[in-house]
Amino acid sequence: MTEIMFLNHSSVLIKYKNEYLLCDPWNTKPAFGSWLPTFPLFVHPTYIASINNLKILISHGHDDHCDDEFLQLFNKNSLIISSDFVSPSVKNRVKKIGFENYISVDEKGKEIGSFHIRSIRNDDISEDDAIYTIKTPDSLIIHANDNWF
Question: Rounded to an integer, what is the distance from CA 17 to the centroid of its chain?
Fold first, then answer.
C-alpha cells in the first residue's frame, strides 16, 4: 500500500513497500533569503537522509524545493529525478553538491522501481517548473508544487 507523509511546504515522503521517494527536500535554510518552511520539517532530517532505497524528486530549482544544505546529508549515490528542462539548472545544482546519479523525466515518464514518474510542463507559462504524476501499483499522486495555474 502506498503511504504519503507530509513533511513541510511541498516536501512529502512517499513510500511503497520498501521504496521511498522524497519530493522537494527543504529543511530550515531560508529560501530567497527570507522564506522559512511552514511548518518546520515534521521528521528529523538525519532520519530522512538515512532511509535506504531513497530516491529524490526535485520539481524545480527554487530554494524552497531544493535545499542544498539539506541535500548534503544524503548519500551522493541517491537517485535524483527532475523534469527534462531545457535549462540544466537543477542538474548542475545537484552535481555541485556531489550527486552524479541524475535522470530527467518527460511526459512519457519513466519506471523507477515501483514508481512511474512523469513531468508535465507548459513552457508557454514557465520553462523551469513542472507538475509531476507519480504512479505506484495502487495509487496516483499529483505533485503540483508551485503550479497553481
Answer: 19
What single letter denotes the amino acid at residue 147? N
In the chain, the amino acid numbered 119 is: S
Name the nearest CA neighbour of 55 among 94, 8, 85.
Answer: 94
Calpha distance 120→130 (Å, rounded): 5
- On whether the pTM is more than 0.90, the answer is yes
1-60 pLDDT, tens digit each? 999 999 988 889 999 999 999 999 988 777 877 877 777 777 899 999 999 989 999 998
| 128 burial level (CB within 10 Å; 0-12, 13-18, 19+) | middle
Residues 53, 82, 38: CA angle, nearest 5 degrees: 80
Q: Which three cell numbers stand for residue 103?
A: 535522470
**Alpha-carbon distance 54 to 74, whole Å?**
9
Please, are residues 103 and 110 in contact by the beta-carbon 8 Å criterion? yes
β-bridge partners, 140: 135
